[in-house]
Amino acid sequence: MPSRPVVAVACSGGRDSVALLHATLAAGRELGMRVVALHVHHGLMAEADRWACEVEALCERWNADFACERLQGSPASGESIEAWARRERYRALARMARGAGASIVLLGHHLHDQAETVLLQALRGAGPAGLAAMPRVVERDGLTWARPWLARTGPEIASYAATLDVQPAIDPSNADPRFARSRLREHVMPALRAAFPEADVALAAVARRAGEARAVLDDVAAEDLRRIAAGEALPLAPWRALSIARRTNALRAWLAQVLDAPVPQTLVDRLLAETADDTTRRWLVGGDRVLRSWRGALALVALARACVTPAGARADGALSLLRCDRYMLDGWDGALEVFSTDGCGIAPHLLAHLVVRVRAGGEQFQLHPGGIARSLKKQYQALGIPAEGRDGPLLFDAAGALLFVPGLGVDARAWAPAGVPQWGLRWTSPAQAAKAQPV
Ligand SMILES: Nc1ncnc2c1ncn2[C@@H]1O[C@H](COP(=O)(O)OP(=O)(O)OP(=O)(O)O)[C@@H](O)[C@H]1O
Questions:
Q1: In which residues is ATP bound (predicted)?
Q2: Ligand 1 lined by 8 (C-beta under 6 Å)
């Protein structure tokens, strides 16, 4: 016998999703579908255990399947607890839906939630993507997410819920004035509805129009990115040739792809203002990730968290390393580490006036005091350094004498005498740098 189709209902235990669960069970019985209630235990509030038990008890009473997952972990640094809880809630719902064999998840959002969302987005200065608010149906992570009650009002659902003989959970954070949505719900929406009775319907229409505009903007961005051959890197010259509106739109779409996270408007604004020429620059975008403009293209690179930009780094290659630390150098993938050492190091004052250059050929390096300076190739061969260990910046003093070569170390002619304070230098590749511990 073929198995029955499975519909999942995301049920917080609140009035709306409890009512939705009931209505879905009634429809499911008629249509021969199995209904499973999915509950996420956020582990953030004292009442959370009770809510999970109540939803489970309700499922037993209504003869519905029940799945529950307790969230693990905590927000990353800089992430709000609400954003973390929201993201993890949807991930947990997706896991549970798949585990239950459901391909569709129903959510209890209604017209008033949608109107609030549009207003909140407008108050944050959102564009079409934000104002599009919550889609009625969307495919994500291989599942269909649907909000069947997006056109129903809160009071309509309340009167249905009143017939069910249940005590829905009341989340006290919904009335907490620290949250913008609570302030809007408690103070602004009642006044708005009194003055404009159709406000909710009108705001939901804004969401639909914005959704259409967003779809057109997505198409234009995809077309522009294809034409300028943007992939993992965004070529800056053809991108700059776009009109300012299309440039902004394409940049936002490209960032959304490479960051795989919401794109802050502040980042878009900075990039637009700071990519007017091909100077090498970097922008930290959270975690270990850095956006870098280099050789006429913008790309996302991973670099060691501990890296800092040397204050004295300049486009002409001049550089000052004034303290022991781990440094990122513009235009180079990897990290330069300066550390205190007892031998084979360099006097710290020599590192205050450096010049960074790529290997040009013809440089001579001396491995030992009293040894002979030889070509880098010969010295690499003598030490058995493989090709992949030879990439990196060469450091010279202001007079052009070679001081440091990646893989070979400090030139013996620049070594400080034994017993005096001295610093060693080490270059690590991106893979090694990513593993490095913060200093
Ligand atoms: N902890 C949760 N577990 C399962 N689904 C949830 C949970 N929290 C929210 N949802 C889903 O997201 C929808 C909207 O959530 P929101 O936080 O706005 O509602 P709520 O006030 O918690 O509850 P309700 O919408 O049921 O009255 C819910 O209707 C429900 O479908």
A1: 12-17
A2: no
| 421-435 residue pLDDT tens | 899 998 876 655 444
Is 12 annotated as ligand-binding?
A: yes
Task: Indicate which residue's Cα is closest to atom 12 of ligand 1.
Answer: 107
Q: Is the CB of 109 under 6 A from ligand 1?
A: yes
Pair 366, 373: CB distance under 8 Å: yes
Q: Which residues contact 247 (CB under 8 A, 6 or more apart)?
A: 239, 240, 272
Retrieve residue 211's tokens: 């959704």
Question: Ligand 1 within 6 A of 16 CB?
Answer: yes
Which residues does residue 435 pair with via DSSP β-bridges, in sequence order? none
Please check whether residue 104 is in contact with residue 9, taking contact to mean a CB–CB distance below 8 angstroms.
no
Cβ–ligand 1 distance for 39 under 6 Å, the answer: yes
Strand partners, 145: 105, 138
Helix or strand (DSSP H, E) at 225: helix 199-227
| Residue of the CA atom closest to atom 7 of ligand 1 | 12
Between CA 439 and CA 433 the distance in angstroms is 12
CA–CA dist 279, 298 (Å, integer): 11
CA distance between the termini of the chain: 63
Going by their DSSP bridges, the two strands 65-70 and 34-41 should be labelled as: parallel
What's the CA-to-centroid distance between 161 and ligand 1, angstroms?
Answer: 15
CA distance 9 to 97: 9
Cα distances (angstroms) measured from residue 311 to each of 76, 278, 397, 400: 28, 20, 17, 21
CATH number corresponding to 6-203: 3.40.50.620
Residue 11 Cα to ligand 1 midpoint, Å, equals 6
Q: Is 277 annotated as a binding residue?
A: no
Token reading at 150? 């997006």
Q: Is the ipTM beyond the 0.90 threshold?
A: yes
Which atom of ligand 1 is the closest one to the Cα of 17? 26
Q: Tens digit of pLDDT for each residue in 194-237? A: 999 999 999 999 999 999 999 999 999 999 999 999 999 999 99
**CATH classification code of 228-302:** 3.30.465.60
- For 6-10, 36-40, 258-262, 348-352, which range has the lowest pLDDT when averaged over its residues? 258-262
Q: 74 near 84, Cβ under 8 Å?
A: yes
Q: How is the chain split into domains, by residue range?
A: 6-203, 228-302, 318-435
Partnered with residue 402 across adjacent β-strands are: 396
